[in-house]
Amino acid sequence: MLLALLLAAQDPLAPLDYWTGHCWRTTLAPEVTDTHCFTRTDAGVRDHHEVVDTGEKVYQGDTDYRWDGTQIRFAYRNDSGPVSDGIVTVAPTGLELEGVRLERTATGFAMITENGRRAFVRVD
Questions:
Q1: Which among 20, 59, 77, 83 is least surrounded, fewest beta carbons within 10 Å?
Q2: What values do phi and psi take at 65, rounded to 5?
Q3: Which superkingdom heads the taxonomic lineage of this protein's source (predicted)?
């Protein structure tokens, strides 16, 4: 735990390191996948995701994570424009955004919302 605190002091976005540099995928329906790819940017970390149905992209969005000097903030936008923004809370098993929890698992991570739980596996 002390090491995690020291790393966070050096890099406040370190709690995102588990996801960063990797792509993760879940199956939404037969032939429909949702892939999230987390990358470092000059401003922080970006999670670009695409929903693909039978080989065709049908939806995409970006969540940008940044350090504002006191906390990690996120802003999500999709093809239609801005959708939501808020604060990220670092939890022992992952991250909590407003209404969404990203929980590390043995094989990837789970995205948990009021609509249920989706298991993502690393695909890179």
A1: 83
A2: -110, 135
A3: Bacteria
Per the CB < 8 A criterion, the answer to whether 23 and 124 are in contact is yes
User: Considering its fold, how many domains does the chain have in total?
Assistant: 1
Cα angle at 67 between 64 and 68, to 5 degrees?
Answer: 110
Backbone angles phi, psi at 3, to 5 degrees: -60, -45
- Residue of 105, 62, 69 whose CA lies nearest to 84: 62
Instruction: Indicate which CATH number applies to the domain containing 74.
Output: 2.40.128
CA–CA distance, 92 with 24 (Å, rounded to integer): 20
Q: By C-alpha distance, which of 89, 94, 75 is closest to 19?
A: 94
State the alpha helices, DSSP H only, in the chain: 2-10
| Residue 37, domain extent | 2-122
Residue 31: how many other CB atoms lie within 10 Å: 11
Give tens-digit pLDDT for 78-102.
Answer: 998 888 999 999 999 999 998 899 9
pLDDT tens for residues 23-41?
999 999 999 999 999 999 9
